[in-house]
């Protein structure tokens, strides 16, 4: 607990340094960023940080919870009003003339801030950029979320055979994730078979898995507010075009390996994307890989850094992200293999333990 409290203290200090030359105070309203700064997990809160004070605002429902979760680092204020009305009196009392705010707030919320008469300055992605580099505690939570996801998959995998419905697969996987300790899922589980698997974000349907189907599963786990993200593709024995399905599987697997090998501290995220994308292009399937190669994972399942063909951010120690190349052939099916990677001591360390090898499932 002492190390976690140290992490929160360091984050507050970093935010103060960030706003020092921009504004007298910062208003944080994004609940994910409030969790990052304080550990608070409730659904209603705002934060004002000045150079010498840390003010936490919530309502009566979270009076005890906020005190317990924030560890004494904040001045907790219980308010009954919404929006800027909840703390306009505090702004006036503190004499704040300029206030940095998160640019994710609604226009209505910004209007209520503007009416207080203070100068408002947007913080564009400030905390999101801070969140790119994970602490040791964050890495540990993400790892536990990953192990929970892997364990859940391994428990249901023997039941994924021709005849089972996509919705049944997703339901079983969700049940096992919850049984493993995940309080919520990072996103709706993808279980797509046969022709449906050529759609990268297909939703599970009543379709039954059939012989010769490629079956894409994309799911994640959770641990203490942090997420994981994995994809695996199974191939049902029998059916048609098995040779091509095996071929694209092995191309995707090789593309993933090349991207992992390229990932290291100091290089552009675009370099990692190119390592996978160029190999898929050279193999003749470039037009069938249209999404980014990966994304950061943490408090959000999609956050910085973005591993894309247009990405320009530099990778660094402490960053955690996915690498997930894919090939999607309309009418035939798709393959996606997704691992999570951690940059440690300058190099990419694969966090995912599940096998990448092709698995041909027989009835």
What does this structure look like?
With 363 residues, the protein is of the alpha+beta class. It has two domains: 129 residues, Creatinase/prolidase N-terminal domain (Creatine Amidinohydrolase, Chain A, domain 1), CATH 3.40.350; 226 residues, Alpha-Beta Complex (Creatine Amidinohydrolase), CATH 3.90.230. Helices cover 34% and strands 22% of the residues. The strands form six sheets. It has a six-stranded mixed sheet, with helices on both faces. Strands 7-8-11-19 form a four-stranded mixed sheet, sandwiched between helices. Strands 14-17-18 form a three-stranded antiparallel sheet. The longest helix has 21 residues. It is elongated. It starts with a helix and ends with a strand.
Across the major sheet, the strand order is 4-3-2-1-5-6
* Main sheet: strands, sense, barrel: 6 strands, mixed
Please mark out the parts with pLDDT under 50 across 5 or more consecutive residues, or reply none: none
Structural class comes to alpha+beta
End-to-end separation in angstroms reads 49 Å
What is the arithmetic mean of pLDDT?
Answer: 94
Measured as a percent range, the helix fraction is: 25-40%
Q: Give a count of the beta strands, DSSP E runs of length 2 or more.
A: 19
| Gross morphology | elongated
CATH classification class of the largest domain: Alpha Beta
Q: Radius of gyration from the CA trace?
A: 23 Å
CATH superfamily of the largest domain: Creatinase/methionine aminopeptidase superfamily
**How many domains comprise the coordinates?**
2
CATH architecture of the largest domain: Alpha-Beta Complex
């Amino acid at each position: 607990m002492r190390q976690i409290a140290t992490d929160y203290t360091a984050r507050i200090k970093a935010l103060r340094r960030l706003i020092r030359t921009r504004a007298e105070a910062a208003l944080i309203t994004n609940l994910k960023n409030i969790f990052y700064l304080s550990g608070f997990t409730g659904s209603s809160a705002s934060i004002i940080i000045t150079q010498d004070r840390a003010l936490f605002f919530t309502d009566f429902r979270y009076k005890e919870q906020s005190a317990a979760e924030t560890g004494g680092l904040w001045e907790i204020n219980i308010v009954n009003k919404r929006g800027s009305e909840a703390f306009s009196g505090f702004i006036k009392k503190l004499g704040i003339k300029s206030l940095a705010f998160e640019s994710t707030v609604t226009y209505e919320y910004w209007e209520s801030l503007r009416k207080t008469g203070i100068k408002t300055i947007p913080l564009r992605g400030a905390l999101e950029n801070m969140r790119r580099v994970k602490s040791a505690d964050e890495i540990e939570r993400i790892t536990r979320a990953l192990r929970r996801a892997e364990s859940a998959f391994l428990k249901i995998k023997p039941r994924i055979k021709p005849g089972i419905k996509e919705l049944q697969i997703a339901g079983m996987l969700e049940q096992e994730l919850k049984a493993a300790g995940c309080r919520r899922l990072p996103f709706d589980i993808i279980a797509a078979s046969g022709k449906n698997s050529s759609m990268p974000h297909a939703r599970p349907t009543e379709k039954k898995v059939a012989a010769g189907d490629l079956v894409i599963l994309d799911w994640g786990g959770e641990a203490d507010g942090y997420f994981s993200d994995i994809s695996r593709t199974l191939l049902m024995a029998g059916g048609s075009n098995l040779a091509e399905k095996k071929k694209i599987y092995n191309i995707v697997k090789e593309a993933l390996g090349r991207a992992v090998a390229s990932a290291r501290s100091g290089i552009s995220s675009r370099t990692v994307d190119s390592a996978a994308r160029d190999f898929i292009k050279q193999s003749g399937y470039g037009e069938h890989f249209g999404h980014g190669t990966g994304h950061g994972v943490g408090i959000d399942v999609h956050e910085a850094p973005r591993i894309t063909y247009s990405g320009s951010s530099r990778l660094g120690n402490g960053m955690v992200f996915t690498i997930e190349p894919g090939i999607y052939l309309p009418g035939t099916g798709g393959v996606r293999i997704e691992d999570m990677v951690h940059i440690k001591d300058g190099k990419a360390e694969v966090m995912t333990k599940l096998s990448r090898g092709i698995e041909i499932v027989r009835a």
